Amino acid sequence: MASKLEQLRSMTTVVADTGDIDAIRLHQPVDATTNPTLVLKASALEQYQGLVKDASAWAKKQGGTQQQTLANSCDRLAVTIGNEILQIIPGRISTEVDARLSFDTQKTIEKARYLVRMYQDIGIGPERLLIKIAASWEGIQAASVLEQEGINCNLTLLFGFSQALACADAKVYLISPFVGRILDWYKRDTGNESYPADEDPGVLSVSRIYNHYKAHDINTIVMGASFRNQGEIEQLAGCDRLTISPAFLQQLSDDNAELPRVLSPDITPPKTATNKPLTEGEFRWLLNQDAMATEKLAEGIRNFTKDQIALEHSLNPNR
What we know:
alpha/beta; TIM Barrel; 8 strands; 53% helix
């Protein structure tokens, strides 16, 4: 029997959750995703040191304040790594907007356009990109504008159903609902040390979003992300896309047991009454009522910001 990875590929688009080019080359995903944490890890690898130096040199030539130069260095490095990845995958690369802009719609739009221009300057068109934006209210509104301009977006740090509803209203191209970080929160909140894979709170959250989207003919792609164990991945077999770390890609590749399909547009629950688009007040209230989603979104933005600052520090020639 084919490996579970090959079986998964027959029903789900597999995406590599890494900036490690060697790992991507080994596992041959369709798409790849990066974020400040992954770019920071990649920047420490020996094979990336030339890219790091080139990014710093390029940023210096652009001029501006020290902070602008550091930000440009980080953006250039992310784009350069993205370009390297695009040479070995057939699909798209997700490149993230600075998490410090998560509550500023206009600046998020401007940064997204800037990243797209940087890719265009090295010959990569927007059809091969996804701009990754935190699923705050402001981020979702920025994505709505960008989608109308033909810039497709990946809304990340998505933990709650209200975020998924607002992303559907904004007609974003793709969402990345998290699995493992939801599990982390529930384990800490309840004291339960483990959950069966089919009762995993993160799995249930993504399944609910997937089924709602399919039942209501919402075209936004659902890409499960942030896994803590192989069972979570298997319980989402059939999801539109799954972004998976190299370690779990290898585990799936080494496992030749049968992998049943769990999610399918043919087995979604009946369509419910279609509600009008969420207002800002309704979105904020629903998110506020979901303690897990509120806490994990805020924590995720803080952690991505921390890694963005660490990346800037590593690229600072004056450190």
